[in-house]
Amino acid sequence: MNDYASRVLEDLKARNPYEPEFLQAATEMLSSLTPVLDKHSEYERAGLLERFVEPERVISFRVAWVDDQGKTQVNRGYRVQYNSAIGPYKGGLRLHPSVNLSILKFLGLEQILKNSLTGQPIGGGKGGSDFDPKGKSDREVMAFCQSFMTELYRHIGAYVDVPAGDIGTGAREIGYMYGQYKRIKGLNEGVLTGKGISYGGSLTRKEATGYGLCYFMDNMLTANGRTMNEQTVIISGSGNVSIYACEKATELGAKVVAMSDSTGYIHDPQGVQLDVIKQIKEVERGRISEYVRHVSSGKYFEGCAGIWSIPCDIALPCATQNELDTKAAKALVQGGCFAVGEGANMPTTLEATEYLLAKGVLFAPGKAANAGGVATSALEMSQNSMRHNWTFEEVDRKLRDIMRNIFEKTAEAAKTYADSPTNYVIGANIAGFLKVADAMMAQGIY
Ligand code: NDP
Fold it and tell me: Residues 163, 86: one domain?
C-alpha cells in the first residue's frame, strides 16, 4: 500500500477502533489507490484522503413511536452525509436491527465511489435505523416512518440530500416517509427515490439493481469470451435485488437454482420458480421455506452458508455484507464457479475477494455491479425535475447503457493501473475515486 494511504489507514484505525465494517471498506479502497497516489503527490498536500474518509456530516437522532400494544418504542436514526463534491448526497436508508454507525459509514464510503461511477451528478450518503420492519403491522411501520421523517426532513431536500430504499426499506416505507415529508414541508419535490409510480416514482427503479447487476455481469462475461446463456446461477437473498437479478438472469438464458433469506435457502435443480418467490416475499412477506410447499422439485435447508456449496457457474451474493467468506469462496471454486457478481454491498470479505481473484474467478465488485439502483434513482430525480415520465423501455435502455459505461470505465482503469486487466476491484475503486478527487481538488479545502 502507498505510504500516504497507509498512514491515513492507521490513523483511521486508531480513531475508529469499534467500526470493523467501516475499516474493512476503507482498507479495500485505500489499498486499491496505490498506483494513483504514487503519481499524485499533490493529494497528500491537500489532505485529500483524510478528507475523503471523514464524512462531511453525521446526524444521529431519536425515533420514538407507539406500537400496537400502546407501548412507546425508541429507535436510533442516522443520516451520514458523506461527500457532496459531485452532487447532492444520495444513498439509501437501511432499516435493520444490525444498523449502526460502522455499517452506515462503510455503506456511505462505498456509495461515494459507486455514485461517481454512474457518471451522474450525485454525491455519497447513507442512513437508516436499527428499527426492524419484520413482523410489524402496517400501522407500526407507518408510525415509525412518520417519526423518522419528522426529524430527517430538516436535513434533506431535492437539491441537498435525496435518500432511497435499502434493506428493510421498500415501496411501503418510502411511501410513508414521502407522505410525512410532504405534510411537513408542503412540497411535492423529488426528495426521495423509489417512490410509487402514482406519485413521482420511475418505472424500472424496482428492477434496476438486479437488472443492472446482470447487465454488468453480461458485459464482463462478454469481454472475457463467455455469456450468461445456459449458466447455472445461485443467488443469495430473496429481497429486491435478488428477485430482479433472478428475473434478468433467467431472461438472459441462465438457470437460477438457489435463493435464500436470513434463515435458510432453497435449492431447486429444475430452476427457481420466481413467481412463487415473488408471491411469498413481495405479497405475503413470508419466509423462503414456504417455497417447498408450492414446488415439489424444491428442497429447503436451514442456515444461509450452505448455499455456496451448491455447484454453479455464477454466484450472485445479493443479501448483506460479509455473507461470502473464504470458506464459502473455496466451496464456490470447488463447485466450478467461474464468476461472482456482488449485488449486495461488500458481501465478500477481503480475504475471500483475494482468494477468488487469485483463483482467476471473474469478480464484479458491488460498487460497480450494483450501481444500477442508484443510477436509476438519479434518473428518477431527473424525471421529477423535468416533470416528465419516461417509459419502462426508455429507462431500461438508459440503465443498460449506464451499466455498459460503468463496466468500460472499470475495465479501462483496471487495464491502466492494476497488475491484471481483470482486477475490476482496483478498476472500480480508481475509476470512482478520480472524478471525486478532481472535484474536491477544484473546490478548495473544506
Ligand atoms: P431487502 O430487504 O429487499 O432484501 C434483503 C434480503 O437479504 C432478504 O432476503 C433478507 O432475508 C436477506 N438477508 C438479510 N440479512 C441476511 C443475512 N444476515 N444472511 C442472509 N440473508 C440475509 O434488501 P435489498 O434487496 O434492497 O438489499 C440487499 C443488498 O443489496 C444490501 O446489501 C443492499 O445494501 C444492497 N443494495 C440494494 C440496492 C437497492 O436498490 N435495493 C442498491 C444497491 C445495493 P430476510 O427477509 O430473512 O431478512
Answer: yes
